[in-house]
Design brief:
The protein is mainly alpha-helical. The protein is built from 21 helices and five strands.
């Protein structure tokens, strides 16, 4: 990875503190007992209905300490753990003060999912312009239950959102993170210590493993807490990982609708690897592409092939719509309208106008361009097309390579 991305000098120098002091853990210790004491503002950690979160935290900390994180990586991770614990406490205190929060109904959420670089983010943004929907804004869901004034929550959220691109500027060309933008579900559920945020940022998971049931229980608790006291609106949610978790998603939200984004797998597969590798590179020098590329290739090849089969046989028990990347680029209003029609929603004139305005005014290449080829990340386009021929045919995907 060092030959692909040059670290900013400030990152290189902070990481060198580990060499000067006996290792990164000497500079930024991460121990479960100390984290629990430090994060506790005196109210303990009231139950949020997601099971043995402390056991998951302890296993996760053990995995973190086996993952060879550099100093900046340990600092990023320590902050996330402490913030996650404080969020748990603040949510628990809020629910104790007002037990009716737990009775909030999360009705028929609309979920966007698809492989990386297939248009999930822009689809999420365009659908989010629908005034009948609400999205999980970073400052709201990272600090849910916080008594901080909104401007201070925005500042507090910056250290997890904008900082990633400060650590490695190329990250901004892959995915824009901002405190005032919606976040993916893997981000809002980090405090469950059960979700795919941690699986994404670490290579060695040790004895820790994701727990979808616990993760979705916490997910619901977050949405309920944020929704409480507001005008009820349908939640719009997003994460690519839901491609591999559709049954878990629908067990948690049986009335959900799903919009899937699609693109030439020779574009999406290498992007998934490059994004994951870059996310890990923010925290460690030990990114092994010889392991990561075939692992992600196998996981997403199986996921996409399985989705194609299940859409044909009707075994996904939810209304499903589709957005194809090439169609989205050509005519975003028609692309969103078609997906809406498939799930029984109507695109309003106001929403259509908002999409046109957003696309017209959105800066192109604001942070540069994420340039890559399939071969750069260990893939051959012809092989991917052959392996995923049924997926490509099922969803009428235009090949770009």
């Amino acid at each position: 990875m060092a030959d692909r991305y040059r670290r900013p000098d400030w990152v290189r120098r902070v990481n060198a503190m580990g060499l000067a002091t006996g290792g990164p853990a000497a500079v930024v210790p991460i121990e479960a007992d100390e984290l629990l004491v430090t994060a506790d503002a005196g109210a303990g950690f009231p139950d949020l209905g997601d099971g043995d979160w402390e056991g998951r935290l302890r296993r996760l900390v053990d995995a973190i300490n086996e993952s060879h994180l550099h100093v900046v990586g340990r600092l990023l991770t320590r902050e996330e753990l402490l913030r996650s614990l404080r969020t748990r406490q603040q949510m628990g205190v809020a629910r104790q003060a007002d037990p009716s929060i737990a009775s909030e109904v999360i009705h028929a959420p609309l979920v966007v999912t698809g492989p990386a670089r297939s248009g999930t983010t822009i689809t999420f943004e365009l659908i989010g312009l629908d005034r009948r929907l609400q999205t999980p804004i970073a400052a709201d869901v990272l600090h849910v239950g916080s008594t901080l004034p909104h401007p201070e929550r925005m500042v507090a959220a910056e250290c997890e959102q904008e900082l990633w691109a400060d650590v490695q500027p190329e990250f901004a060309t892959v995915h824009e993170l901002r405190a005032d933008l919606p976040v993916e579900c893997i981000t809002l559920t980090a405090p469950s210590f059960a979700g795919n945020h941690w699986a994404m940022v670490l290579q060695d998971l040790g004895d820790w493993s994701p727990d979808p049931v616990a993760d979705f229980a916490f997910h619901r608790a977050v949405l309920q807490t944020v929704q409480h006291g507001r005008e009820p609106r349908t939640w719009l949610l997003k994460t690519p990982a839901y491609l591999m978790m559709l049954d878990d998603l629908l067990a948690a939200y049986p009335d959900a609708s799903v919009i899937m984004t699609h693109r030439d797998p020779a574009k999406t597969m290498p992007s998934t690897v490059s994004t994951t590798a870059l996310v890990q590179w923010l925290r460690t020098d030990a990114v092994d592409l010889d392991v990561l590329s075939p692992l992600i290739g196998a996981l997403f090849t199986d996921a996409l092939a399985t989705v194609a089969k299940r859409r044909v046989d009707g075994s996904i028990r939810a209304p499903c719509g589709d957005v194809r990347f090439t169609e989205l680029v050509r005519d975003p209003v028609a692309a969103v309208s078609g997906a809406y029609e498939a799930i029984g929603r109507e695109l309003t004139p106001d929403h259509a106008a908002a999409i046109e305005s957003y696309v017209r005014d959105k800066p192109k290449g604001k942070y540069g361009t994420h340039r890559y080829t399939a071969e750069d990340w260990g893939f051959e386009p012809a092989t991917l097309h052959d392996q995923l021929a049924e997926y490509v045919e099922t969803f009428c995907i235009e090949l770009e390579t």
